[in-house]
Structure formats: structure tokens, C-alpha cells
Amino acid sequence: MGDKIKEIAERIRGLRIDLGITVSEMAELLEMTEQEYEIYESGTQDFSFTFLYKVAARLGVDISELITGTSPTLSVYNLVRKGKGLQIERRKGFNYQSLAYLFKNRNAEPFLVEAPYDETAERQEILQRSHSGQEFDFVLKGSLRMKIDDHEFILNEGDSVYYDATHRHGMIATNGEPCLFLAVVIRDQNGRMG
């Protein structure tokens, strides 16, 4: 595994210990066993986006701080040029670009997401996860097969969906091509995201 993964794992472990949070509590939050969680914290297992998002929320830090080791500092605006968002490559080829990673105290997390087309994944059940807050997804290019709880539908270019992210949800690119979409995750009423 790369040095980047080990660095992220060390930050997570250090923050968890500093805050007095147990491995058991983190494993429960992430719906996994303590042994599975410890593998992530050892830096030998790559992180899913949902894992990082939930961990950042529980540790009270920004997701970009977990990834880069530095805190956001901007408070008036955060300009991000095309292709210059903070790259987060997670979940089997999904590429997330954080579009507001330098803005502190954000109420929402906007991401430009590239979902690869995977013929095998298209024939399987969509992996679903949940997190606090709400989410808005807008398809810019391609098509996205989306599932929220038991509701499944296709979003095409120009289509969007807004939903309660505490419900299990997942998505994959469909129709034989990758999908590019804007995903905005919004804090819940208690100020939690993730």
C-alpha cells in the first residue's frame, strides 16, 4: 500500500487516541468488526470514501485534513480551477475531486465524481451505504444507475436527485460508459456530515 494510505491511517489513529475514542466505538460507527477496523488503522487497507467521511465527522475534522494533514484556512471563498480539486480516489476506481477543500467550516461538501463503467458491476446488486445529512447528485455526462433503499432508477445527463443520505444508497455508471456527476453532501440539522 502507498505511503499516502499509511499517513492517513496514522492521522486517524492519532486523532482517535487523542480524543479518547475506542476502537470498538469506531468499528460500531463503521458497521464492521474491531479487527476489520484495526486493519484500516494499520495502513494496510485502502479507505472507501464513506469510511473517510464517517471517520472525519466522528473525529471532528474536515475530510481534507485527514487526507492532506492540513486544516482548511479560507473563509470568504475557495476558487478551484478545472481539474485542480483535491483528488480522492476511492471505491474501486471512483475518483472524487473535492471542490471546496480549502474553505473552513463548510456546510456542504461539493465533489466532482468520475464513476468508471464496469460491466461486471452493472450485472450485480449495487453496493449501498448511508451517512448523515442529505445529498444532491447532478449528472454532467453519461448515465448513473442509482439505488436508494429499494428504489432503483437511471439518471441521464442533466438529471438530478436530492435525498436523505441516512437511507442506504449507491450508484454505478451504466450504458457502457463512465459517468461524470456533481455530488453535494449537506450537513444534517445537528451540523454533522458523514
Q: Biggest sheet: strands side by side, in what order? A: 1-2-3-9-4-7
Tally of alpha and pi helices: 6
Relevant CATH superfamily of the largest domain: Jelly Rolls
Largest sheet: 6 strands, antiparallel
Q: Strand tally, please? A: 9
Unreliable stretches covering 5 or more consecutive residues: none
Proportion of beta-strand residues? 25-35%
* Radius of gyration over all CA atoms, rounded: 16 Å
The CATH architecture of the largest domain: Sandwich
Distance between the termini: 25 Å
Query: How do the helices and strands follow one another from N- to C-terminus?
Result: HHHHHEEEHEEEEEE
CATH C-level class of the largest domain is Mainly Beta
What number is the mean pLDDT?
90
The number of distinct structural domains comes to 2
Q: Which descriptor suits the 3D outline?
A: globular
Assembly annotation: single chain
Helix/strand/pairing class, anyone? alpha+beta
Portion of residues within helices: 25-40%
| CATH fold group of the largest domain | Jelly Rolls
Question: Could you give a quick summary of the protein structure above?
Answer:
The chain is an alpha+beta fold and 194 residues long. The protein contains 6 helices and 9 strands, in the order H-H-H-H-H-E-E-E-H-E-E-E-E-E-E. The longest helix is centred in the N-terminal third of the chain and has 16 residues.
Secondary-structure blueprint:
Elements: H1 3-18, H2 23-29, H3 34-42, H4 49-59, H5 63-68, E1 86-90, E2 94-98, E3 108-115, H6 119-122, E4 134-141, E5 143-148, E6 151-156, E7 160-164, E8 169-174, E9 179-186
Helix pairs in contact: 2-3
